[in-house]
């Protein structure tokens, strides 16, 4: 169903892929794109579990907005392996104003569809979502 504020629907595949990442760890990341003509959020790309954070950031377009989920693995100070699911709202300064507005107005509703997000980041350039930023947010 479309969101009254932005008119964006969320394709079922978006939720399905997220559940697979969360429950089965089938993917390392998922990149979502708003299809303006269809007025819905769709899955643009999924990353295999073996892909790195660099593979993930390289998959984000330099001048277009996207939503992304990243499953970050890390070790606690007690040497316990853990993971956190990040939601990243990628909105580069170079993207179109209309696109930034649509992504911003659709974000909260889209996030509510994905139950299990643990940490949210808003990034307008790559330094705002660097690996050091990700690491600092898990502790």
UniProtKB/TrEMBL annotation:
<feature type="domain" description="ADF-H">
    <location>
        <begin position="5"/>
        <end position="139"/>
    </location>
</feature>
<dbReference type="GO" id="GO:0030042">
    <property type="term" value="P:actin filament depolymerization"/>
</dbReference>
<comment type="similarity">
    <text>Belongs to the actin-binding proteins ADF family.</text>
</comment>
<dbReference type="InterPro" id="IPR029006">
    <property type="entry name" value="ADF-H/Gelsolin-like_dom_sf"/>
</dbReference>
<dbReference type="InterPro" id="IPR017904">
    <property type="entry name" value="ADF/Cofilin"/>
</dbReference>
<protein>
    <recommendedName>
        <fullName>ADF-H domain-containing protein</fullName>
    </recommendedName>
</protein>
<dbReference type="InterPro" id="IPR002108">
    <property type="entry name" value="ADF-H"/>
</dbReference>
<keyword id="KW-0009">Actin-binding</keyword>
<dbReference type="Pfam" id="PF00241">
    <property type="entry name" value="Cofilin_ADF"/>
</dbReference>
<dbReference type="GO" id="GO:0003779">
    <property type="term" value="F:actin binding"/>
</dbReference>
<dbReference type="GO" id="GO:0015629">
    <property type="term" value="C:actin cytoskeleton"/>
</dbReference>
């Amino acid at each position: 169903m479309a969101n009254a504020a932005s008119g964006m629907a969320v394709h079922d595949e978006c939720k399905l892929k997220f559940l697979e990442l969360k429950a089965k760890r089938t993917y390392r990341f998922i990149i979502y794109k708003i299809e303006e003509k269809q007025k819905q959020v769709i899955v643009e790309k999924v990353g295999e579990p073996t892909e790195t954070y660099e593979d993930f950031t390289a998959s984000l377009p330099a001048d277009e907005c996207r939503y992304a989920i990243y499953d970050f693995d890390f070790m606690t100070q007690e040497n316990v392996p853990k993971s956190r699911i990040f939601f990243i709202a990628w909105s580069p300064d170079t993207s179109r104003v209309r696109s930034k507005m649509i992504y911003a107005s659709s974000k909260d509703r889209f996030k509510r569809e994905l139950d299990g997000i643990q940490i949210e980041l808003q990034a307008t350039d790559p330094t705002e979502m660097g690996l050091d930023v990700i690491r600092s947010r898990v502790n």
